[in-house]
Amino acid sequence: MDTLIDGFRKFRATAFPNHKDRFRRLAIVGQNPRAAVIACCDSRVDPQMIFSARPGDLFVIRNVANLVPPYAPSADYHGTSAALEFAVRQLAVREVIVMGHTQCGGVRSLLERAADSGDFIGSWMSIASAVRDRVMAGNTVVTDTARATAERETIRQSLTNLMTFPWIRDRVEAGDLRLHGCLFDVAAAELLILDPVNGTFGAVADRAAAPASACG
């Protein structure tokens, strides 16, 4: 904890003065983020840092393996769905981005079924059970290729599940909301974008510069 407190003191002394007016304005008028980012809670993947975002730019939703469950309102606890509802219906974000990453421990446990004995992780990762079935196809050995494929497939699965939320689907069909998928390569610091037309992931470095729009 002492190290974290030292980090806070450094933030107060160096970073905060550069954003002081912005923090004051956000405190007075509230937040108005352009995009919501659904990312993994992996400590190596920080959407704010990756997108060089300022305070208030992104509404970040983090969970194990950046999964979106299907729309299923009930009396159970729905942390990710509740955060999505707040971002889309209350804050009216214009972009929702599912950002996966390489070397994802959640995806590895999904393929290896290592999480099945846990209290919560196995149930959570069952959201992507269809991904495991497609990628493994009866195989028992988890290869690097299988893990890389599953990391991309979980992004596609989450994008599919996003469209089961009626208030997301309605906004997408009206042109008021755009959905994006991307994968962050931890070792190379490269960002791969899912092309909605051909369904493949391509490096940002291979794309022409576009008007400001996170991951899109």
Q: Which labels suit this protein?
A:
single chain; 216 residues; alpha/beta; Beta-carbonic Anhydrase, Chain A; 2 domains; six-stranded mixed sheet; 16% strand; globular
Characterise the protein shown here:
There is one protein chain. This protein is α/β, with parallel strands linked by helices. The chain folds into 2 domains: 1-30, no CATH class; 32-206, 3-Layer(aba) Sandwich (Beta-carbonic Anhydrase, Chain A). It has helices at 2-29, 47-50, 79-90, 105-112, 121-125, 129-136, 144-162, 166-174; strands spanning 35-40, 58-63, 95-101, 178-185, 190-194, 201-203. A 6-stranded mixed β-sheet has the order 2-1-3-4-5-6, covered by helices on one side. The termini are far apart.
Layout of strands and helices, then pairs:
Layout (H helix, E strand, L loop, with lengths): L1 H28 L5 E6 L6 H4 L7 E6 L15 H12 L4 E7 L3 H8 L8 H5 L3 H8 L7 H19 L3 H9 L3 E8 L4 E5 L6 E3 L13
Parallel strand pairs: 1-2, 1-3, 3-4
Antiparallel strand pairs: 4-5, 5-6
Helix pairs in contact: 6-7
Radius of gyration: 18 Å
Order of helices and strands: HEHEHEHHHHHEEE
Order of strands, widest sheet: 2-1-3-4-5-6
Instruction: Assign the CATH class of the largest domain.
Output: Alpha Beta
Low-pLDDT sequence parts = 212-216
Biggest sheet, in brief? Answer: 6 strands, mixed
* Known CATH architecture of the largest domain: 3-Layer(aba) Sandwich
Helix content: 40-55%
Quickly count the domains.
2
CATH superfamily of the largest domain: Carbonic anhydrase
Instruction: Report the β-strand fraction as a percent range.
Output: 15-25%
**How confident overall, as mean pLDDT?**
91
- Tally of individual helices: 8
> What is the overall silhouette?
globular
Tally of DSSP β-strands: 6
* First-residue to last-residue Cα separation: 37 Å
Annotated CATH topology of the largest domain: Beta-carbonic Anhydrase, Chain A
Which secondary-structure class do the elements indicate? alpha/beta
